[in-house]
Amino acid sequence: MDDKKTIMGGGFFRKEEKPFIDKMSDILLKAQNMYVPQLTEFLNLREQTILNNLINKYDDLYVHYFGGFSGAERVRGIIAPSYFTPVEADYEITMYEIRHPEKFANLHHGQILGSLTGSGVERDRFGDIITDGENWQFFVFKSLDTFVEEQVKKIGPYKIHLIKKGFNELLLPKDESVDDTISVKSLRLDTIVATVYDLSRQTAKTLVDHGKVQINWVVNKNASSFVTMTDTLSVRGYGRIRVNDIMGKSKNNKYILSVNIIKK
């Protein structure tokens, strides 16, 4: 479990992030006025960064994060006064393991994600989906246990069975991503996509124009949109890019970015 100083940076806010900022501001005020802990939905890295920036205005409030395991990307936050130290149970998270016909089924992340959202579960109600290369687990609101067990019976064409597991039975997640450092002339969305996946700017722009690129899981059709720290870019057919850091500029005036890349 991490506190508010774990993930910082990215003070730039987008217009489309205003509803989330307003929601978190209301929760912060509630925590301050009522002086009791407040639990958030699952937050992605960008949302965590926004919350960290907002909470720094409150000297008497802290945010603690947990997503089912150390290093989880999607986590729930507990916003609380300094007197409160949360335990795992306070985050109200259930972990499920997916039992499926291993000889016939080759599950993948997109199938599982689609089955969960297709069942009616909002994206902010469940956390990471992890695999050790053979088995799969995911994390969801504890309050949705019964609903998920009743609604999620198939993933793709395969019948599955969900088994509730304790956090001590966590799989060792298989990480197929790589860290890299790239140099770009600008922080435009199409420029970063083109650089990471070795595409022409026009090809990258076409992907964006056709709605095949997301910033933080929201489709963005503006190729000139600026990318900032802790943004996650999803490029259909290519993979995912997480911007870990903007480390400054090189001698030839290019931005130097630390990125984490998943290639499909």
From TrEMBL:
Molecular function GO terms recorded: RNA binding
Q: Which Pfam families does this one have?
A: S4, YlmH_1st, YlmH_RBD
Which UniProt keywords are listed?
RNA-binding
Alphabetized CDD domains for the sequence? S4
The protein's matches in InterPro entries, at most eight in alphabetical order, are given as: Nucleotide-bd_a/b_plait_sf, RqcP2_N, RqcP2_RBD, S4_RNA-bd, S4_RNA-bd_sf
Gene3D superfamilies given for it? 3.30.1370.160, 3.30.70.330, RNA-binding S4 domain
The RNA-binding S4 domain covers 187-246
Q: What is this protein called?
A: RNA-binding protein
Q: Which organism is it from?
A: Companilactobacillus halodurans
